[in-house]
Structures are given as C-alpha cells and as structure tokens.
Amino acid sequence: MAANMIQIDYLLDNISPCDLLILHDGIDSRTFHSNGNHLLTEILFPLPNKQLDIGEASPFTFPAIDVTKSRSAMCRTAIILINFFTSLSSKWRKQRRQNEWMEFANEGHFYFRPDPDSKNEYFVVRDRNIFTVVVGHREKVGGLSLFMDLERFSKEVYNLGIAYISREGSLEHFCVKGQDGEDIHEGNLNCVDKMGNLITTFINLSAPPKYWYFIVEDFDLQKANFTMDIKLVNDINVLNPFNRSLPYTVEHLAQAVFRKANATLVGLQITKRARIGLYDIKEYHWDYTTVNLRFAGFEFLTCYAESYLSFRFYVDPFQPDLWVGLGICLFLIIAIVWMYVHFAEVGNVSFSPWLFVLSTLLEEAHHVPSKINKLIIFRYIFGLWSLMSVILTNCYNGLMISNLNSPLNSVIPETFADLLCDGGTIHSSSYYNSTDFLVNLREKLKIDLISTYYQGILNYGNVYNTSFVDLQNQHDSTNCYKLLSSPVKFPGEQVIDFMFLRYLTDLFDHLLHEHLNSKGPESVPLLEWPHLALMLQLLNPRHAHFPKEIDYSTKNLTVTDLQQKIETEIVDCSRKAVFIAKSEHLQFEFDFLEWSYYGTEFHKGEEILNPLPEGIVFESEGLSKVPKYYKGLIETGIYARIEKEVESVAMANRDEAITLIKDDRFSLGLDAGIVTLFMLCGFVLAGSTLCFWFECRSKMVRCG
C-alpha cells in the first residue's frame, strides 16, 4: 500500500441519502475507489469572479453551480482529506485563505442571481444540513483546535466529525463534536469504534446545544430596555400567564420552551453558541431557521376629523333605486288622473293632480272638487297612494331626522398621502414624466429646507444640539398634520429618538449615500422613484415631528415623559396630529386610548407603510427542538394569545396622561346637520323676498 493510501470505503458506502463532496490537496486517487456502490463524487467549483488560493502555487478560478440549474439535496456530506492529517510524515503546507476555502465548500457551493441580467450580483445559497468529516491520525487531528485559532482551519464548520485512522489507513474511531462551544477535546467528542450509516451516526452522537443566547439585531424590534430578562427565563417557578396579579411576560413563555428542551438561556454572547433572536427575517430566511410572527410596518391613528357641510342626508334615507321607483310611480299617478280629468266627461272642474300628490307627501290637506272626489278611479288611485305616502313619509322623516341630529360629515385620513400638506394628492409614476413638473415638484418639496432640517436632527442625535427645535417652530404649520411617533432611547445614545422620524432620516441618509458623487439631495431621481416624493414630504419641517413644550436640552428627559406628552396631544381632537408606530405597538396604543378615553372616537389608517416580515431566527440550533417548540406555540395561536394577555396587563398598569371631562348631557347646536334647515329657510326667504321685489316693481311700472 502506498504511503499516501488511506481507506475511506466505510465513509463512501454509508452516506445515503446525502450528496458527497470531497475536499483534498493531492490525495492518491486510489483513496476514492470503493468496491461498493456509492454516489458520484462532486467536484468543488468556487464562485464566479472569486479567486481562492489553494496552495502556494497559483489561484484557481472556476464557475460555481447555479442552484436554478441543478437539484438541491436533502443533505450533503463533505469529506476533508488533507495530507498533513492523513500522513504522519507530512508537514503543514501553508495554504493561503484555506479557512475561507473550506467555508465556501461547506456553505457556498450553490448560488443564484436575483437579476438574471446582472452578471456580478449573486446570492450564496447555504446548505443547512451539512455533515463534515475530517480524516486523519489522532496525533495530527488532535491539533485541530489550534489550527482553528490560527485561522488555518474554518471555525464555521458546525456538524463536525473526525474519522481517526490507524497507521495502516483503516478506521480506528469515529467521533462527533458536541454542538456547544468551539474547542475540540476529549470531553467534547462522542465516539464509536464502528459505524453504520454516516448520517444516522452523526444524529445519534450529536448532542443538541444546551446553552443559547438571545439577540435582537434590529432596534425597531427591541423593547425599551433592549434586553431579555434571563432570570425570568431560567426561573424555577412556573407562572400562570392568566393570573394578572403576577408579572407574566414573554420571557416566561421562553421559560416553558427552554425547560422542555432541557436548555438554558444565557446573556453572554459566545461564538458557536446557539442563538435565538428577533429579526426582520426577509434577509435571513434562506440561511437560518425562521418562524414568521407577523408582517409589520408603520401605521397611524388619530381622533382628528375635518368636518364639512353637506345636504346629502336629505336624499340618503332612500336608495337610488327607491327614488327612481318613487318618481315613476308619481309620474304615472299624475298622468293617469290628469288625462282622465281632461278627456273624460267630468265637466269644467279646476283640479291639479300634482299639487294633490305634493300635499300628501308634505302631509298637508288639499281641496278636491266633489265631482272628482266621487270618481271611482280617483278613490282607487289616490286611496292607495295616500296609504303608501304615509308609510314613505314616516320612514323618510325618521331616517332624515336621525341624520339631521347627527354631527356633520367629516374627512378622516386613511393613507399617508392624506397626511400631506398639499391636499394629499398622490399621483402614479406616469405623472412624473416631465422635467418641468420635476422642477415644480422640487420647489414644492423644498429639498433644501428638508436637508437643513435633516442635518439639525442628526446634530441633535450626535452632539446634543437642539437647534432643530427652532427650525421646527419656525416652519411647522397648524394646517399640516403633526407626525408623532413612538419615543425610544437606543443603547449608548444620550438623546431620545422617535421611531418614524428615525425611519425617515435613515431613508434620507440612504439617498445621500446613493448620490455622494452628485450635487447633493437636489440630484435625487424623483422621476425614477416617485414614492420618495411622499417620503420627503413627510420629512418636511412643516410636519412637526417632536412634541412641543418640552425642554430637549435637559438630561433628565425620559421616554415616559415624552410618551405622556404625545398622548396629551393625540387625544386633543382639535389638533391635526397623528401617532405613528409599528403595527403591533399601534394596535396596543389604539386599544389603550379607546379604553382610557371612552367617548373619543379614534381612527386607524388603512395603509401599512413598508411592511416587513418579523419573526424569530434560530442559528446553530443543530438538533435542538427549540425551533419546533416555538413553531408549535405560534401556529397554534398560543404565542399570540400570551402576547395579548401581556398587553392587557400592561394596559391595566398604565395610567392615562390626562383626564378628559365629558358632559353626557346632549344639547343640539349648530355644529350638526340642523344648520342646513336654517340655510334652506334662508334660501326660501331670499327667494320670496326677490319675488316680492319683482312683483312690487312690476306693479309700480304698470301704475306709472
């Protein structure tokens, strides 16, 4: 047997149902031969336009495998054969960037292009079920941890097995590293002398991670304190979530999960420790195990409604089809009676059918000549009409009077476009197709003013400069909606920020970075991105974003202070103000305001701005059942029910910012539909006065 010849039949013949990948640096080809039937060996293809140095000689560049042109296996086995590990006499070959080479082989073997026309843009598709086996002698492989620390061997290999071979090249032991920690030592290896199926052996020897840590990457998803109470999760006392006398939180829900999985949540972040976190999962769903909780975006609520006068309620009691039927019926009645009176032998009788019909509708008496009154046709037609008119007039009066006593109709904002100062008119992208309009639009948007306001907000956050307050007070308008949002204090920052304002400034910051080489914000291509016109208008200082009558320079300013001030302004329905928050937070505020300020009618907008999937992301979970337990809680509705209960407790423990005194006595005033009666009466008086003037004038002319 050649000095470089080792036996891996026990691996090649027992990898079903996974694909096989062999990484080597010049092992004898006879090593890959087997008497049994096994899957064909896959060949490593690095990513396109990416050079990976294999050895000291020269870089190799090959195309990777396009996942859209190949199948995706349930799992993949990677066997690593390096001369230093498989030969007792070999020395370590310095291989540049070998750790990246191994990470790529394990996690970047497939790719796809989101845009087929873009040759340089691609996303790596990571295989999650990868089982990596390092083959070598115990004397050599024992230093694997050292090579990881020296970045000669990848630390990113998660399911790692070691096949210890004898001096003759046959299998001596097969060990699997535990899924907790990085180090490879005897205490972290579970071993067997003989092995059957490689995947089954991996599963049997792998222990799920016992220690997890919680992380929240996106500040928008974090709580006020940005931490999870580890003590509550690991508490030995089990709390009833529906006992409101006890401070139950979602941490106790995590307690139930980790207790059943026999795992512990820790607060210290350690590499290669299993992680659970709240994320915007759209960037993670193809790399990690994700469980979707909700789609959340920015929504708004307000109690402000802009009233307007309308005479529509005079025709609203009847549907259009009823009005049409009533008109046809009246026409036929009047026409039949008129023709009978004029063409039948009734005699010289003065009778107007339409005046009689009109008087019955107005519930007034009308004289009917005795000759007409004795006619059988008159009694049949007008007898039925009188009965029908009583029903119609009573129905009409009841519905109309109810509307007459109700408040005036009002316009309620439903979308973010309705909040704009420009009358809320938003056009499609085809509307932005002329340079002349773009110039006018830029003048409307006042981008220079927005840019100055944006810089003032940044200075407030970075150097605690409150000059933005003067800028806001100088330009804000009572005719524009005040855009107030959730106050939050991020870790490491001294000032209190506002979530929606943060979103707008981040968007503006992104625009500036996209156009650094241009002339500034004036070069933003609004023709290409008409949606940005709406976003920029919402950042206009005419829309106040900060509650007034607060000293922002004080160091003692708290989130609670701002929250109460915002609440005070929102419940004042005479002000044009809206509260903007993420969907779940806004729903909580909506329920709290309706409960605390009974009698005040609050409205939620119908638009969700920038909706994104939010959920729980699990990383390095291995064989743990924690993701499965969380998925069960969410899909069965238990998680949502517990969140609702926690919100109810928070609502009960929260006090309203102000006390509104409402007079339950009802007094009719001119701020309701009753004012239209005075207007109609005024029109009639004006018309009669005008007619009286014309009659007097005509008599004076005749007399003169």
TrEMBL record:
The reply to whether rRNA-binding figures as a keyword in the UniProt entry is no
What Gene Ontology cellular-component terms does the record carry? plasma membrane
Query: Which compartments does it reside in?
Result: Cell membrane
Chief site of localization: membrane
Q: What's in the keyword line of the UniProt record? A: Cell membrane, Glycoprotein, Membrane, Receptor, Transmembrane, Transmembrane helix
**What is the membrane topology noted in the UniProt record heading this document?**
Multi-pass membrane protein
Q: Which residues form a coiled coil?
A: none
Q: Which InterPro entries match?
A: Insect_Ionotropic_Sensory_Rcpt
Transmembrane stretches, by residue range?
322-341, 377-399, 672-694
Q: Which PANTHER family match?
A: IONOTROPIC RECEPTOR 20A-RELATED (PTHR42643), IONOTROPIC RECEPTOR 68A, ISOFORM A (PTHR42643:SF35)
Protein name from the UniProt record: Uncharacterized protein
